[in-house]
Amino acid sequence: xxxxxxxxxxxxFLSQLLVSAEDExxxxxxxxxxxxxxxxxxxxxxxxxxxxxxIRGCEQKDPYAPKTIQxxxxxxxxxxxxxxxxxxxxxxxxxxxxxxQTNNCKLFTNNFTxxxxxLLASFYIKYNITVFRCNHSLKATLPNHFYKYSxxxxxxxxxxxxxxxxxxxxxxxxxxxxxSTIQLAVQAKSTNNPFQFLSASIAIEVRLSxxxxxxxxxxxxxxxxxxxxxxxxxxxxxxxxxxxIGLLIIWHRKPRCxxxxxxxxxxxxxxxxxxxxxxxxxxxxxxxxxFDRSRELGEGGFGIVYYGKLIDGREVxxxxxxxxxxxxxxxxxxxIKILTHLRHKNLVSLYGCTSRHSRELLLVFEYISNGTxxxxxxxxxxxxxxxxxxxxxxxxxxxxxxxxAYLHASDIIHRDVKTNNILLDxxxxxxxxxxxxxxxxxxxxxxxxxxxQGTPGYVDPEYHRCYQLTNKSDxxxxxVVLIELISSMPAIDLNRHKDEINLADLAIRKIQKSAMAQxxxxxxxxxxxxxxxxQITSVAELAFQCLQRDKELRPSxxxxxxxxxxxxxxxxxxxxxxxxxxxxxxxxxxxxxxVKLLRNMKMRPSPKAVTDKWDSQSTSSNVNxxxxxxx
Length: 631
Fold this sequence. Notes:
The chain has 631 residues and is of the alpha+beta class. The protein folds into three domains: 30-168 and 177-217, no CATH class; 254-366, Phosphorylase Kinase, domain 1 (2-Layer Sandwich), CATH 3.30.200.20; 449-613, Transferase(Phosphotransferase), domain 1. It has 14 helices and 29 strands.
């Protein structure tokens, strides 16, 4: 059938559907019982399309029936609604209320996550304060009007005035950079007791975009997004008509992150990628100043990454494929598939991609401004690369482990964990990137058989030997990252002795010989600070477990995360079991029943060249262990 005839038939069918459908035009306001009349951006669950935040219970006959709202942070939670104003909704967090009533320090870990911003609106806690959760060992230099609360067993709490009282241009004390941050609701000026001024009542302010405000006030229309994620103002049009227009647009144009060169098997699963905003090549070319070489951020596994600035002001990192070949295109699509299903504060966000009509396939990510962990560890003497003190390094380890544990809980193996793929923002918070090699892992199998891919120095030797990929492959790679954080040495260095080219081999030998001082970066204070020495020694023991050649002897990522948190909070002493001496010299290492040390194993010498180790012809071409990659 000719395309024109198909389109005509589709229009006739959908027109009939429109005539028979109930009119779904959104009224100016909706009744919500004792909350009164509510307007956009709020709506009821019976008309979810008429707003951004649907309130449950409005439709009950009893006007005083409980009113609730469900938010995803990060899993769906239900909150009671106390009050609704034109652009603000007041809710109560029951957990927060309990912690405040009992002076429970879990208050400072009960992070409240707002809905994601869109082209329609953004969301804010109207009255809030930024709280810093810091290790007891931190010696912070604080300005006036800052407080320290030390009555929590696991950490100290630092905070200043509420954010509404902070002047423009204010900068947070750099001494608090190693700490975790959380925003909490406040009801009064800050004092030396946070339980007296923090609040369980949270006022969520909705700030509509200029286009949406104009649509509501001047056009008297409805704010909507089309199939491309682009804003449009629907004037006097109901939901069925909106669906019809959307279907026609999708049928006619089919914008998606798929190349015309790709195989039919991928086109059949295009719905996986639908919903990702589509950028034009022209817009991204303009954002990167025609892909100016001065804007290169680094090289990923299958493309060059450029800094860009979009028309709306957002700073982005644009990944550009080298060429349209099957392997790189497969990885490109894989990254979209993975990232469209993930939302985590320690994972880099995907903003969108180009369509199949574009001159090139491009991925658009949020821009992370402070470089990679590798750039700080191995190039801290260069411009804009500072030395990372130990408190920041263990923070990096914990946040990276948090991201990997989240991936594994989502049945995803990263498969290319390395310090070049761990990004840092200006507060030294971690964003794990580069999912081109990642694999979705079926729930009903123990491993996936696949040719080894990854970066030399980080690849699990059992995966390389047996072609069996498991989540313990990520654990091995993370063990190498831990050793890098301890030593500041790169994973592969051809200038080292042939038996120590591979950092994992070098570390195992030093730990077996109780020669920790020869492994640790002397600038970290290993010999002068007893607390740093304790933490580094414990992290080395954990890395040693992660680097076991037998995957069954490695801990899970959840266990790794738990141990790292214990090490940072001084609880790791209780985790130690019977201690044994290694070759009768130096400090001892913990040796539990579940962990067998490698001291009795014969280590295979590292090769004279990086490629000697990878005898498989199917190994990925991504062998540049020293590359500095934004994504």
